[in-house]
Amino acid sequence: MTDWNEFGFNTRAVRAGQVRSDEGEHSEAIFPTSSFVFKNAAQAAARFGQKEPGNIYSRFTNPTVRNFEERLAALEGGERCMATASGMAAIFSTCLGILKAGDHIVASQSLFGSTITLFNTILSKFNIKTTFVNLSELDSWQAAIQPNTKLLFLETPSNPLTEVADIQAIAEIAHAQNCLLAVDNCFCTPALQTPLSLGADIVIHSATKFLDGQGRCMGGAVIGSEKIVGKDIFSILRSGGPTMSPFNAWIFLKGLETLDLRMQKHCDNAEALAQWLEKQEAVERIYYPGLPSHPQHQLVKKQQKRFGSIVSFEIKGGKEAAWRVIDSTKIMSITANLGDTKTTITHPASTTHTRITPEQRRAAGINEGLIRISVGLEDIQDLQADLLRGL
Ligand SMILES: *Cc1c(COP(=O)(O)O)cnc(C)c1O
Question: Residue span of the signal peptide, if any (predicted)?
Fold first, then answer.
């Protein structure tokens, strides 16, 4: 097998993991098949008995899915990758694979909403409890660890306020206490940040976002060592069933080929929009790691290649003013989804963060005037004009 570490990011993104069939197809083939046939009864027995490697059934392995897994593993610099049906399936399978009843998680408090629900209401039914901490306070991570803590979990930069966690420092805290660190790398993608190289043990993706990048399919992935991902997490997928479909894997493979190109343009547009917003009279405060005014600008410069595509800002005049800006747009899509070629705009206080109480929202800094934009690939002048109408 090729050692992809020798090659640059874009070469890996375009070529890693492809195994051509005897037809000699140039583009990757899709294998939409639930099962695979054996040459004879002895081969069937050998495959089922795990004496011979090879495909049996697409819930276990599928060639198109494996192609995607090998390509993403090569981009994240991990030994193994397991593709899943969605980002939440990736997080759920990781927790089921490495935790048992009585274990404890320490997680950053500003996580994706469904991740918080999964930890608080689903895992807690099985006596796996979670303590949430402020992701930028290293002392809080340290203080929250208990004798039964097994997993530290974070997302950086956070959504929507773009707070940044020091992955290397948190990995050291985790390892000193025999815990694993999992990083949800959805917002940066390996084009901007590779958590495994900073000491994290597990990387999680919602492929639904930037890996597809064009808003077409649901999918997810877990990347890490052969032992954790290839054994513990694979056994959950094999028997629990949240595997990725071959068609979706093919879409994501094609998405990976242009990932770096797209991320560079997302970042160009987001940086330009953030700098422009900072000068607007109606804007009270702006959250973007690429601005020197961001409190963790130095850490981000060290940890990420560039600053990402999520820009949030608070507008003077609260909810009424925020809704006016959103409703005055003609190009941007009013949707909570992100990581698309199409720019999306959302009001977190009344959508993604509506299930928490107003006090919790204020404590988390999600004010009524806050607007979050996932900056897409349209022309920057058109995006500025779209916002200017409401500002
Ligand atoms: C969307 C998202 C998820 C969940 O992914 P799905 O593919 O929607 O299941 C997890 N983490 C982050 C940061 C996300 O943005």
Answer: none
Which ligand 1 atom lies nearest to the CA of residue 187?
A: 13
Q: Report strand pairing: 180-184 vs 149-155.
A: parallel
Helix axes 63-76, 246-257, angle to 10 degrees: 40
Query: Tokens 């206080």, residue?
Result: 349
List, as one string, the DSSP characters of 151-214.
Answer: EEEEESS-TTT-----HHHHHHHHHHTT-EEEEE-TTTHHHH--GGGGT-SEEEEETTTTTT-S
Kindly list the structural domains of the chain, giving each domain's residue range(s) and its CATH number in brackets, ordered by start.
8-257 (3.40.640.10), 260-388 (3.90.1150.10)
Please check whether residue 266 is in contact with residue 377, taking contact to mean a CB–CB distance below 8 angstroms: yes
Strand order in the sheet with 333-334: 283-287, 310-315, 370-374, 344-346, 333-334
Evaluated on CA atoms 188, 193, 194, 195, the torsion sign reads negative
Question: What was the pLDDT predicted at 110?
Answer: 86
Residue 1, pLDDT score: 59
Ligand 1 contacts (CB < 6 A) are: 86-88, 112, 114-115, 155, 184, 186, 206, 208-209, 218, 220
Residue 53: how many CB atoms within 10 A of its CB? 8
Instruction: Give the integer Cα–Cα distance in Å for 158 and 365.
Output: 12
